[in-house]
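=== RUN LOG ===
request id: a7f3
mode: sequence -> structure
chains: 1
length: 219
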Amino acid sequence: MVGTEHASVRLRAVRWAVECPNLTLAERAVLVDLCVRVSQAADGHELLVQPMIPRIAERTGIAVDTVRQRLVGLNRLGLLKRSGGGALVAVQVGAQPARRRSQATDWDLEVQRVYEDSGFCACWEAYPRKDKKRDAARAWVTEVERKPGPGADELEADIRARVVGVWRGRTRRTVPLFATYLRGAEWEGANEEPGAIIGETAGGAAGSNLDRLRRRAGS
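=== RESULT ===
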């Protein structure tokens, strides 16, 4: 009987998470994952779960950084509440999400969408320097999505080649920002010459990394 009641509690929580309005796809996926694993507290009033971020990321296919951000967002919306000294969260089943703090701009919505894009997430995870993610997302929109050329798979392969090539042995701070990598003409050709210094061009070629990859794709 206890097992049946437990299953009923989880089912109710999952149904609420699926139907909860005004959530992004990633927010809903994280919330559903938590609801599948809730347990009723001893007092019978709270539904508790331990948010194991790497496990959530693995089960949902969402990047670890994005899962962490979505948990913070769900807390701000009033759908989660810290409990047990912070190790657990209480899922607020039945609650309606609070109004978001400010009206999102078009760029806010674009950045939010890119954060949940699997291609961007794969390249971001592969990239050795994790600074200014928002600017990186904006560069992804302007340099990758809005221009013809290489896709995320080719960019990821280029990044991984640089990590074991021209960037090998360097500190992360000497690697250009991801947004700079996408936009910056000064990095043109660096990957073709293993001895090249970051910031110098190979053979004086001009254009961005994406321009080089576009030319390669069209040849």
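=== NOTES ===
Residues 185-207 have pLDDT under 50 and may be disordered.
Strands lie at 39-40, 47-49, 80-83, 88-91.
=== END ===
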